[in-house]
Amino acid sequence: MYRGAVRWISRVARVPVPVDASMEGWRVRNGCSAAFTDTPLDDAQADDTRATRRTRTGCAAALERIRVEGGSHTWPGGNQYLEASDVGRVARDFRASDEVVRFFDAHPRP
Question: Nearest-5° angle of CA 79, CA 108, CA 41?
């Protein structure tokens, strides 16, 4: 989820959709209850960012997100591909690529 609040739902229409609204749509589609658990990730690096995993409960299909506070339009754990003054800092408390693999390994398709 980019910038923590908005992601682009359509590359053609370029319609901005707030992350909370998008996740609510997935919650309904996945049959999740309204309940969730927020778990802070370890603050492993002094990078001025904090990450929290939100896991929905009672779902027919798993649903979670990681919200990065103090992050920017960068891939957590990735390269600082431009100056932080241009794109913001890269969150270093976790590697987004590892989290994607972890999620799909834990929730294989039937």
Answer: 45
